Amino acid sequence: xxxxxxxxxxxxxxxxxxxxxxxxxxxxxxxxxxxxxxxxxxxxxxxxxxxxxxxxxxxxxxxxxxxxxxxxxxxxxxxxxxxxxxxxxxxxxxxxxxxxxxxxxxxxxxxxxxxxxxxxxxxxxxxxxxxxxxxxxxxxxxxxxxxxxxxxxxxxxxxxxxxxxxxxxxxxxxxxxxxxxxxxxxxxxxxxxxxxxxxxxxxxxxxxxxxxxxxxxxxxxxxxxxxxxxxxxxxxxxxxxxxxxxxxxx
Length: 250
What we know:
By secondary structure, the chain is of the alpha/beta class. The chain has 2 domains: about 5-180 and about 220-245, NAD(P)-binding Rossmann-like Domain (Rossmann fold); about 180-215, no CATH class. It has 8 helices and 7 strands; from the N terminus they run βαβαβαβαβαβαααβ. It has a 7-stranded parallel beta sheet with strand order 3-2-1-4-5-6-7, sandwiched between helices. The longest helix is centred in the middle third of the chain and has 26 residues, at about 95-120. The protein is globular. The two termini are about 35 Å apart.
């Protein structure tokens, strides 16, 4: 178990990609604090080695308190997976200020707060991994999703910069950039696209499938495998990078 004795935090850890990553980390011996907004979802998902904590990533004060409590109970955070996010989209002329701020508050601000607070205890140790879940939209444009793409580009740029801040130190910072993954978010997006475009849910799902270069939805476990690889002690030279998981180059 390569992560035995390590404490990890995974935001959005109750479903989808976050839960798959949490399971992979636990399987390698880590103690994993999983966070989210709904305690019933977290408790239903939790297995031995997972510790559910209610935390809304748009609430800076709650992130500070929750990470401090997690550190007090399980030790310094040595693996931070900033995964929590929302996926909403509108074309430019239909993007309200409220929609823009909601997406940025969750996807970009939430990632920043989570990484900053996790790093406080991580820097007291001699090893650490920071992984931000961005998106394939973080390395290319996305029609009808300018705010979402901007937030995910921001995550990629932020993580690259943090890697530069700590060059030569025993901490790495990388982003995962998956395409469409078979998660509850995709299910919700299918319904949203179908309603906006006046098409069937099956046709909307086909649109998302065809955006992935290999023409199929990605499994959450595939993203988790990439996260686990970045946590391997042998990957210390992978730093400031974006790992694309989209069936081909973006």
